[in-house]
Amino acid sequence: QVQLVESGGGLVQPGGSLRLSCAASGSIRTISAMGWYRQAPGKERELVASVTSGSATNYADSVKGRFTISRDNADNTVYLQMNNLKPEDTAVYYCNAEVVPWGPAFKTYRYWGQGTQVTVSS
Predict the structure, then answer these.
(1) What is the mean pLDDT of residues 86-108?
(2) Strands (E), the chain
(3) Which of 38, 42, 83, 117 is the most exposed place for a label (fewest CB within 10 A)?
(4) Is the distance from CB of 16 to CB of 89 less than 8 angstroms?
(5) Which tens digit of pLDDT belongs to each residue from 1-48?
(6) DSSP 8-state assignment for residue 64
(7) What DSSP state is assigned to residue 105?
(8) How many Å apart are CA 75 and CA 54, to the nearest integer?
(9) DSSP class of 53
């Protein structure tokens, strides 16, 4: 079993900053991509940012220049530094990881965290 545990959400004023963390644990052989998604009320879940094991990153256009994704491969942890937050960033943020668990088959599974609420409001 693999678990993803997120932390760092909360309430912040427009223009403020938050840092999200997500730690993966369990029977992990290797992790390829890790990322953050978000889902606002009444909207579909969307990709915010992702990072490969080689540190190649990808961002949604709406967060480029404001958010930074990073990861610590030794600790199986991914971070999302969010600066200059806007009300439209308000959503539940979900961590995602593509994991190859220990076992006889070298197969990739996608795991999700439980979500953490980010609210940007004055």
Answers:
(1) 95
(2) 2-7, 10-12, 18-26, 28-39, 46-51, 57-59, 67-72, 77-82, 91-101, 109-112, 116-120
(3) 42
(4) no
(5) 899 999 999 999 999 999 999 999 999 999 999 999 999 999 999 999
(6) T
(7) S
(8) 15
(9) T
